[in-house]
Amino acid sequence: MLILGVILLIIGFILKIPILWTIGVILAVIGLILMLLGSFGRPVGGRRHYY
User: What Å distances lie between residue 46 and 9, 25, 33, CA to CA?
Assistant: First the structure.
């Protein structure tokens, strides 16, 4: 999810499409939160890792 968010950020920036930029930011933040929770050993949604 983090990688998809970063890809959408880049595409939205290059093509000047604001909705892609917004969706990319949201996905990147959610992916970062899930990655941090998984790295602390806390299972989220039944999964210990999200990568």
Answer: 28, 25, 15
Alpha carbon 18 to chain centroid distance?
Answer: 17
pTM score of the predicted model: 0.73
C-alpha–C-alpha distance, residues 19 and 42, integer Å: 32
Residue with tokens 């933040």: 29
- Chain segment 1-31, per-residue pLDDT in tens: 788 888 988 998 899 899 999 999 999 999 8
The length of the chain in residues reads 51
Q: Can you read off the two tokens belonging to residue 28?
A: 């990147």
